[in-house]
């Protein structure tokens, strides 16, 4: 009996060992579809013949400071599963340098008749793990480098808000870091479809002030690597003598006002005490508390009316090429968002689903991510954000436009707050008789990778509805404070989700 049990145990052990061996063999076979050989990744490496062309070669960029310890854990897992030379820590390797070097090698090899290199370039995909700021940074790099056959990008949600990943179906919760979970993500990347999205260019110009400074001030210091505002060089065609000119770009949103002020306070606090902000739930709770202390929930009581957008700036929009028109903004609006993707403040959709009849009357459409238009939405305060939690909730729809221009003059306030894809800063305003101008315009497109659960809609995708279901839009054009107060029926969860800042501290 004992001998039989021993034989049975030995048999089960051999079967289990065989299954593990077969599992390892399948895993190796699967990972070959994503791997890139050293002779392409490391300049000067020995060129070897390769028999198998991977179906989905990837380059992986990871912000190891994101997600508490998760970024570092992901780096270890990806490096163990793939060729370690195709996995990069953004705290050590600048993505523009990495991609320039890689594409220079690929072009040289192609010129020498290497068909394998040509196939790698044709099939290459990028994975970026980090917060929205990190994802925007990579999008900016790929856009700026003007690469031949620029690779589409998949985003691993490793921040607090994770609006970019959520908009394309990658989720908004921080991921597991074990090998099986990473392999599952790789397979999703392999199966994902490509989707073009609009890029938006921002110019901010101000005359050199007689005293003080109008330079943008980010929390404690300017983000050194993000695709936020950067001063143009003296040789740039945008530069004008006697003016300070900055340029930047965004893919998800540009916001101004109270929501950006709360985000600025959050990022300042996190930079001062980074050890406290290593948990996604804690970050969201801290953000909500700051929304209260900054007066965002009771803006009409604690904030001066000079903070209202209509008093801060004169706003013009362009719907048709060459034709500017002034945008009428209700006096109670304290936050304005120029939205490119249907995901803001942790996955909420401020634009919602416009009523068909009113859409025709107001010239509004379903928000497509590749139609050359962005949506302009206003909010009164954080209470107003509660409507986004309702089935057909939305902010105050102001316009859809291809360009927008904000003009700030002396007198309304000393400063305001702005945010690009999670990057907040404090913007001083003119102290003398001059104007600060911020203008947003279309700047081409970039390619994202999207899963079947993608929330973003393409105007060229047959599965995207031309007209969404109708909703009651009766509250969309309210102008009186009384009618606005009637809509305040509880504390909102919105505006509490921040995104990443710089590589050393963010998401």
From TrEMBL:
<dbReference type="GO" id="GO:0016020">
    <property type="term" value="C:membrane"/>
</dbReference>
<keyword id="KW-0067">ATP-binding</keyword>
<keyword id="KW-0808">Transferase</keyword>
<dbReference type="GO" id="GO:0006952">
    <property type="term" value="P:defense response"/>
</dbReference>
<dbReference type="InterPro" id="IPR001206">
    <property type="entry name" value="Diacylglycerol_kinase_cat_dom"/>
</dbReference>
<dbReference type="Pfam" id="PF00609">
    <property type="entry name" value="DAGK_acc"/>
</dbReference>
<dbReference type="GO" id="GO:0007200">
    <property type="term" value="P:phospholipase C-activating G protein-coupled receptor signaling pathway"/>
</dbReference>
<keyword id="KW-0418">Kinase</keyword>
<comment type="function">
    <text>Phosphorylates the second messenger diacylglycerol (DAG) to generate phosphatidic acid (PA), another important signaling molecule. PA is required for plant development and responses to abiotic stress and pathogen attack. May be involved in the accumulation of PA during cold stress.</text>
</comment>
<dbReference type="Pfam" id="PF00781">
    <property type="entry name" value="DAGK_cat"/>
</dbReference>
<dbReference type="InterPro" id="IPR017438">
    <property type="entry name" value="ATP-NAD_kinase_N"/>
</dbReference>
<comment type="subunit">
    <text>Monomer.</text>
</comment>
<comment type="similarity">
    <text>Belongs to the eukaryotic diacylglycerol kinase family.</text>
</comment>
<keyword id="KW-0611">Plant defense</keyword>
<dbReference type="GO" id="GO:0004143">
    <property type="term" value="F:ATP-dependent diacylglycerol kinase activity"/>
</dbReference>
<feature type="compositionally biased region" description="Acidic residues">
    <location>
        <begin position="468"/>
        <end position="482"/>
    </location>
</feature>
<dbReference type="InterPro" id="IPR000756">
    <property type="entry name" value="Diacylglycerol_kin_accessory"/>
</dbReference>
<dbReference type="InterPro" id="IPR016064">
    <property type="entry name" value="NAD/diacylglycerol_kinase_sf"/>
</dbReference>
<keyword id="KW-0547">Nucleotide-binding</keyword>
<feature type="region of interest" description="Disordered">
    <location>
        <begin position="452"/>
        <end position="494"/>
    </location>
</feature>
<dbReference type="InterPro" id="IPR037607">
    <property type="entry name" value="DGK"/>
</dbReference>
<dbReference type="GO" id="GO:0005524">
    <property type="term" value="F:ATP binding"/>
</dbReference>
<feature type="domain" description="DAGKc">
    <location>
        <begin position="53"/>
        <end position="206"/>
    </location>
</feature>
<keyword id="KW-0346">Stress response</keyword>
<protein>
    <recommendedName>
        <fullName>Diacylglycerol kinase</fullName>
        <ecNumber>2.7.1.107</ecNumber>
    </recommendedName>
</protein>
